């Protein structure tokens, strides 16, 4: 299986969007649908699903996941981490859509009430130590041992190295897109990611792409 670093994944993402012309929102929708497939195929308690969303494209995936669940009639809460005013355009586009669906963002959520948490806070864009407030929140969430499905990577795990950036949200399952990430196979990331499921979302790899880690059988 081919493993990729965060930078390699970003190169593939950019190639698919900018050279091939696949709209970013199509990739986000497919990423969200892939996560719903995994939720549906597992034995998760779906009584109250809490989606935690960040301000980048990982968060945009999270908003789309919340919408798809809500449209299917699930009891879903969507909680943002960070100031939504500073979110990327893809998040704002998703927020405009959910408004029309009637899905209202939660201002504050009780983690204890959740039967399943979807972690869409940070993905491959993580590039620094997590803010202190988020580290505290993650440590508290780990403490109550809720079942977590991580979107692309568990928040706080460096997708390239598997190291923890201050704190990391322990996942039962990680649904990762296109290729498995090196950081989900080694160091803390190797066990904190839980079961890793790689899903095709229609990404195309540049023909001249070289990978830093050779493909493993
Ligand atoms: N790879 C793909 O083909 C696809 C990826 N998708 C999803 O998008 C994320 C990656 O999105 P990106 O916007 O690049 O990054 P993040 O959402 O992980 O992070 C957002 C943003 O936050 C800033 N940031 C990074 N680290 C920190 C920090 N420690 N503290 C504060 N702020 C931080 C930085 O500016 C980041 O850009 C990928 O994982 C997938 O889930 C697409 O949806 C589908 C295609
Ligand atoms: K995540």
TrEMBL record:
<dbReference type="GO" id="GO:0046872">
    <property type="term" value="F:metal ion binding"/>
</dbReference>
<dbReference type="GO" id="GO:0033962">
    <property type="term" value="P:P-body assembly"/>
</dbReference>
<dbReference type="GO" id="GO:0000932">
    <property type="term" value="C:P-body"/>
</dbReference>
<protein>
    <recommendedName>
        <fullName>NAD(P)H-hydrate epimerase</fullName>
        <ecNumber>5.1.99.6</ecNumber>
    </recommendedName>
</protein>
<dbReference type="GO" id="GO:0052856">
    <property type="term" value="F:NAD(P)HX epimerase activity"/>
</dbReference>
<feature type="domain" description="YjeF N-terminal">
    <location>
        <begin position="9"/>
        <end position="209"/>
    </location>
</feature>
<keyword id="KW-0479">Metal-binding</keyword>
<keyword id="KW-0521">NADP</keyword>
<comment type="similarity">
    <text>Belongs to the NnrE/AIBP family.</text>
</comment>
<feature type="binding site">
    <location>
        <position position="155"/>
    </location>
    <ligand>
        <name>K(+)</name>
    </ligand>
</feature>
<comment type="function">
    <text>Catalyzes the epimerization of the S- and R-forms of NAD(P)HX, a damaged form of NAD(P)H that is a result of enzymatic or heat-dependent hydration. This is a prerequisite for the S-specific NAD(P)H-hydrate dehydratase to allow the repair of both epimers of NAD(P)HX.</text>
</comment>
<feature type="binding site">
    <location>
        <begin position="57"/>
        <end position="61"/>
    </location>
    <ligand>
        <name>(6S)-NADPHX</name>
    </ligand>
</feature>
<feature type="binding site">
    <location>
        <position position="58"/>
    </location>
    <ligand>
        <name>K(+)</name>
    </ligand>
</feature>
<dbReference type="Pfam" id="PF03853">
    <property type="entry name" value="YjeF_N"/>
</dbReference>
<keyword id="KW-0520">NAD</keyword>
<dbReference type="InterPro" id="IPR004443">
    <property type="entry name" value="YjeF_N_dom"/>
</dbReference>
<dbReference type="GO" id="GO:0031087">
    <property type="term" value="P:deadenylation-independent decapping of nuclear-transcribed mRNA"/>
</dbReference>
<keyword id="KW-0413">Isomerase</keyword>
<dbReference type="GO" id="GO:0003729">
    <property type="term" value="F:mRNA binding"/>
</dbReference>
<feature type="binding site">
    <location>
        <begin position="123"/>
        <end position="129"/>
    </location>
    <ligand>
        <name>(6S)-NADPHX</name>
    </ligand>
</feature>
<feature type="binding site">
    <location>
        <position position="152"/>
    </location>
    <ligand>
        <name>(6S)-NADPHX</name>
    </ligand>
</feature>
<keyword id="KW-0547">Nucleotide-binding</keyword>
<keyword id="KW-0630">Potassium</keyword>
<feature type="binding site">
    <location>
        <position position="119"/>
    </location>
    <ligand>
        <name>K(+)</name>
    </ligand>
</feature>
<dbReference type="InterPro" id="IPR036652">
    <property type="entry name" value="YjeF_N_dom_sf"/>
</dbReference>
<dbReference type="GO" id="GO:0000166">
    <property type="term" value="F:nucleotide binding"/>
</dbReference>
């Amino acid at each position: 299986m081919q493993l990729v670093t965060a930078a390699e994944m970003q190169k593939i993402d950019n190639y698919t969007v900018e050279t091939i012309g696949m709209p970013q929102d199509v990739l986000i929708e497919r990423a969200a649908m892939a996560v719903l497939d995994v939720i549906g195929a597992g034995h998760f308690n779906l009584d109250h699903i809490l989606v935690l969303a960040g301000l980048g494209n990982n968060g945009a995936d999270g908003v789309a996941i919340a919408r798809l669940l809500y449209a299917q009639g699930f009891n879903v809460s969507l909680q943002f981490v960070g100031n939504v005013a500073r979110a990327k355009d893809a998040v704002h586009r998703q927020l405009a859509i959910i408004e029309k669906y009637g899905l209202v963002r939660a201002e504050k959520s009780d983690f204890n009430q959740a039967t399943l948490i979807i972690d869409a806070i940070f993905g491959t864009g993580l590039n620094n130590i997590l803010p202190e407030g988020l580290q505290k929140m993650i440590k508290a969430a780990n403490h109550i041992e809720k079942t977590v499905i991580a979107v692309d990577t568990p928040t706080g795990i460096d997708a390239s190295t598997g190291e923890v950036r201050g704190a990391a949200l322990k996942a039962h399952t990680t649904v990762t897109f296109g290729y498995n990430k090196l950081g989900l196979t080694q160091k803390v990331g190797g066990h904190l990611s839980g079961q890793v499921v790689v899903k095709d979302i229609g990404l195309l790899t540049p023909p001249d792409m070289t990978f830093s880690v050779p493909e493993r059988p």
